[in-house]
Amino acid sequence: MTSGYITYQVELKNVKFVADDGRTCARTAIITFYNATGKEINSELFGAIELNSVFDMIKEGKEINLNNFYVSEFSMASYRLNNNIEKKKLVQINGFSAQNTFFEAKICNDFSYISFADGDINFEGSHFANGKVIFNGSEFGTGNVIFSNTFFRDGNIEFTGTSYGEGDFLFKNAVVMNGIKDFQDIQFGNGEVSFANTEFNHGELLFINTRFNSGKFNFKVTRIGGGKVDFHYSVFGNCEIMFERTEFGNSRVDFRTVDFGSGRINFNRSVFGNGEVNFEGASSKAGKVQFKKSEMGYGPKNFNLMEMEDTEISFERTEFGDGDVTFYGSKLHTISLKSCHLDHYFDLRLAKAELLDISDTIVRDIVDLEPYDFPVDIKVLDMSGMRLIGKLYIDWTNNKCKEVIMNQAGTTLRQKAEQFRILKENFSSTGKYSDEDESYIMFKRYEAKSWLTKQAEKGGLIKVLSYIPHFFKWFIFDAMGSYATNPARVLVSMVCGYVLFSLIYVLLIQITDSDIISGTSDQLGVVARSFYHSAVTFFTIGYGDFYPHKGARIVSALEGFTGVFLMSYFTVAFVRKMLR
To answer: Which range of residues forms the domain containing residue 329?
Structure first.
């Protein structure tokens, strides 16, 4: 049938119409189609069937075939009134087909409270050129219900409270103009429900409290001009849910408290406009939810309190646009924001997650992970490759930063070291200096492990010799002072070093001809001489009243260097603490 028209004109002729399949009408409807400028596009012929003839077929229980007919003012309300039937009592229709049919009505085309018998119900290619379209309360038996390529010029359609048996519900390639599209409280069967490539234009699109059973829900490449898209309280069974490349326009998109069931959910490459996106309280029993390479505009994105403990949700390479993004209190198995630009406030205070992947992201604002009124239970946090221009609100202890990075299975030692470095710089900028020290220690440790692993890969003598500098660095920088972050540990190392050298002097004097000789008349015992000489040497005091002899000279030189080094190390660690 002709498409793309703005207005039309119907002319009825008392000329017999014969359809291709032999059906006849006493009159012929000539419908002329016009574009926006009033220019004629095309004209087509339809059989002009009398409405009373249709009602008689319903009353007689006949199968109704309106293919290629023109039908004016179809109304089940009028049928009930004429036959003294209660307003909401179901009327049985034993078969119905209206392919390429042209419907029009001043107020509405009323198909409400019909009980369709088993078999396909087909409106494919039909035009509802004028008037609202109502199917409220109707029941469809086993078979396909087809509205593919249908045109709803008025834009107001109601399927509220309808129910469907086994079979597909196909609304593919349909065009619905501006208006309210009401699919609330529907009970679908286990077949495919497809709105693929449908144009809904502007207005409200309502699927509130609708039940989708096992099968497939297909909203792929559907286009919505703007308004409101509302699925809240809907329930999906074990079915695949496809919103791939759907264009939601500047709509308020509402998936609050939707039960997505146990199937796979696909929002890949979907385009959300400048309205609110709300998935608060949505749940899923298993499977995957994917938003890869989706685009979102202005407005808040609410993913709070989702119950998806067995579900993997991925926003990889998604463009979140402007507006805050929140996952506050959600329970997920894994969530990936890999390679996203986090340009605005992101609330990632998850109640539970096995993995939070924010690798390769660019953070320009705030990413909030710090617990406030409930524990943030994230087992693994992957920040490898992150470019941190903004800030992370995170706590070393409460967020278990050490564990969530160490538990990563798919990252190298070097990548783990880099993540601890990111945390170190972040804690420094946010003034959490104790946390900065902890992350800096882990950064240096993993950096050292990474170097040792790289040397070990070379094999041979290099592998063996690499352990010498590795042990030396570990002992001097880590064990003795925690990389200058712990002045108390350096102080303990100084005391231990002083005592160790003192005992070495005692042993040397006892078992060799080395000695600590007095340059004055003072005479002290071996232990006293050893500890006194060790003190003035270690702290580089150098009174000269006692001096080393033979082998003790070498030990004294080594102790003097050690003392200078550890005192400098202590000064650096102490001043670093005080200046912050």
So the answer is: 256-407
User: Is 372 within the bounds of a domain?
Assistant: yes
Q: Which amino acid is at 383?
A: M
Please give the structure tokens belonging to residue 356: 């939070």
* Rounded Cα distance, 178 and 432, in Å: 55
Does 453 lie in the same domain as 372? no
Three-state DSSP at 146 gives strand
The CA–CA distances, whole Å, from 203 to 118, 250, 547 equal 33, 11, 97
- DSSP secondary structure letters along 23-70: -EESEEEEEEEE-TTS-EEEEEEEEE--HHHHHHHHHTTPPEE-TTEE
Number of domains in the chain: 4
Q: Any alpha helices (H) in 515-550, and if so which ranges?
A: 526-538
Burial of 397 (0-12, 13-18, 19+ CB in 10 A): exposed
The model carries a pTM of: 0.86
Q: What is the amino acid identity at position 553? A: R
Per-residue 3-state assignment (H helix, E strand, C coil) for 235-267: EECCEEEECCCCECCEEEEECCCCECCCCCEEC
Number of other CB atoms surrounding residue 414 within 10 Å:
16
Q: Give yes or no: residues 509 and 402 share one domain.
A: no
Per-residue pLDDT reduced to its tens digit, 423-470? 999 999 999 999 999 999 999 999 999 999 999 888 888 888 899 999
Are 449 and 466 in the same domain? yes
- Strand ranges (DSSP E) for 124-170? 127-134, 139-140, 145-146, 151-152, 157-158, 163-164, 169-170
In this structure, the answer to whether residues 419 and 400 fall within a common structural domain is: no
Instruction: Verify that 373 and 299 share a domain, yes or no.
Output: yes
- Contact between 295 and 268 under an 8 Å Cβ cutoff? The reply is no
- If you search the block for the tokens 């499977």, which residue do you land on? 287
